Task: structure prediction
Amino acid sequence: MTTPEPLLAITDLSIDARTPEGLRPVLDGVSFALVPGETLCLAGESGSGKSLTALSIMRLLSPSLRQRGGSIKLAGRELTTLPERAMRQLRGGDIAMIFQEPMTSLNPVMTIGAQLTEAIRIHGATDGGSAETRARAMLDAVHINEPARRLGQYPHELSGGMRQRVMIAMALSCRPKVLIADEPTTALDVTVQAQILTLMRELKGEFGTSIILITHDMGVVAEMADRVALLRAGRMVEQGSLTQIFEQPREAYTKQLLDAVPRLGAFRGTDGPPRVTAAPPPVLPAGPILFVRDLEVTYGGATGWFGRGSPPPPVVKRVNFELKAGETLGLVGESGSGKSTIGKAVLGLIPFTGEVVIDGVAIAGLSPGAMKPVRRKAQMIFQDPYASLDPRMSVGESIAEPLAIHGIGTRNERRERVALLLRRVHLTPDQATRYPHEFSGGQRQRICIARALALEPKIIVADESVSALDVSVRAHVLDLLLELQEEMGLSYLFISHDMAVVERMSHQVAVMRGGAFVETGSRRAVFENPVDTYTRALMRAVPVPIPSTIRHQDRVTASA
Amino acid sequence: MRRVFAEMTRRPSTLLALLLILVVVLSALGAPWLAPFAPDDQPFDGLSLEGAPLAPGAKYWLGTDTLGRDLLSRLLFGARTSLVIGLVANGVAVVIGMLVGTVAGYSGGMFGGALMRFTDLMMAFPALLLAIVLAALLHPSLWIVAMVIALVNWVQVARVVYTETRGLAERDFILAERSLGAGHGRILFRHIAPHLMPTAIVYGTLGIATTVLLEATLSFLGVGVQPPQPSWGNIIFESQSYFQAAPWLVFIPGAVILATALSFNLVGDTLRDLLDPTQRGRG
Result:
């Protein structure tokens, strides 16, 4: 086999972090090569060093990091020893980069046009015409409608997907040889993600750019990559062609990671989530534990002293549903569809109109005092476990907090209860004296679950509770939730944008768009026979963690 | 608490600062016994034959002031005034500012808005003018001056604390706390207040120097601590026109204020680090 001359060759790249305890390696002997015209996916979980690798190619490492060794060659030219001046020419010229969050990567006080033409002028990439013409042509190339008008707009006037298109236009405007995309679609909705990925594939051919795509999402890898390099804790685990990695992974970690990826349609033909324990089902009342009628929420009613004007449209419009004891209702939808708002309203955390009945008690208009006993029945688990724990409180104090608030038990009894709860979520009681920052993301979410369980609630609202977690950890937390449901008969209102996760967890599903339910029904009905066009579009947009070549083969054999 | 103290004495710079504060406090308390002269004593040989103040020497260790009084004695007695002003006035200002800032930031809405507009009004009002009016109405004494300074100085603290509280109140762990059924008092005192400690400590220590100087300004204008009672600030102000002829009269008290303020600041900084669990075990 002849290997084409690599465009970018990284050999034995090692980076140390300066810590008070001394130098600590964060990247250790990473080597890979990028061939012209290919898309290489750098995949791995958080902390694996994918972004560090990208930043060290651009030589944009933060001063607390130090490159220990290794070489980075672009078309035979060594970058690690290049003077800063030459490096500046290279950045944005030969190598361009786009980031995860398009809002923060664009300057909010400069128009789109000013930022685009600036990038074009710096590198003199006007193609003979004026920078403005070139900017317009670039916006056209990334399929932004009305490019002339967009040039005069500011970043906040564009949607997230459009902002990422602008970032791509900016990155490609100087015809870079290499485009480094660091989680370019992670902050976007699935349907927008699908569009951006298609766009990147299209432009790769058009501009002759090779792409290094950094992602944690094996679905995105399967859709985009020619070759895959898998990192873990700063080391290269495995690299190879897309089919080789997905079909014949050599390393155990690769297999484990691929197995942990939830696949849409994996639970076809079943009615409830998979059973994870052998516990006999708890005896539960037949009626609904949560009953919601005509729920409507409007934000921003009061606007200061001189506030006037008509009230804004509601973010949740006349929603009806009920949740049975011991079951899970999955609320799925894209950002801004009002899923989280429903979660908060149901717990009485924000003002709402309509009827919400928790275990027989209508909570609309209850005083804080009357609401307090109801709070014991319904608890919440948030998206970001680190943000939802008080960083100045030890984990034990945080878990005991609900008991203290409701005046349950003496100090010693609470301590025992905390130990029990920690064991319940598979942590150890001696961890109670430690602080949230000393734990990993998955452990922190377990702590949040323990806190939610402290009051022995009947309902738990889980708002994107696994979205911030790595795939392998996510599976464990989901299993824990299922285990608790089977043993304690908990009901979940499970809010997520991730279709595959909702499929795994739910008995019933409601699909939301623009504040209203577009489709509701049993999981089997919604996932196997979606009626609404939006539900179908949503499901089609989910990246499938199976390379398309293999998928096509399957389809052929299936139809044969 | 013992752990915090042990940790503090382990850092050389903090230990030095602690010792300096101890010296200042002891000399303020022991001024009557330590001072070689009475603070308002004007000995015959306190001035040169031409009537100029004496430079530091064997009898008057730090020299004498324009009225021939011993500078060292005045500084020792002045420490009493300035410490009271610096600690009490500034402390009260920080407490008022914290209270107004957190309440306004946490309650928000009309009430919070009204509180903050009042704070803005106080900020826009010339502080010195306000202090002069208040001091003139209330007859200046040491404690009245301290209160006047506190009433002028709380505004900046309130503004900063307000913004911080607004940010904190939006955080998920406060929402989590609400969903557990916690009342406002618990959220404010157990979850928001601890996060404001760094700000309180920074203002509580940094503010000492400015407060000491504000008192001096008031003294200079005749509405501060009344002469002949010495304070570090009014020692500087009484002598400032003799700066050319007797620079020690400005430099020595200036250095004392600087060293004291710096010490408090250093101790405050260390305290802030030690009280933050996320910083534990770091350099």
In short: Residues 29 and 142 of chain A are 37 Å apart (CA to CA). Chain A has three domains: 35-58+84-259, 287-300+311-377+457-535, 391-456.
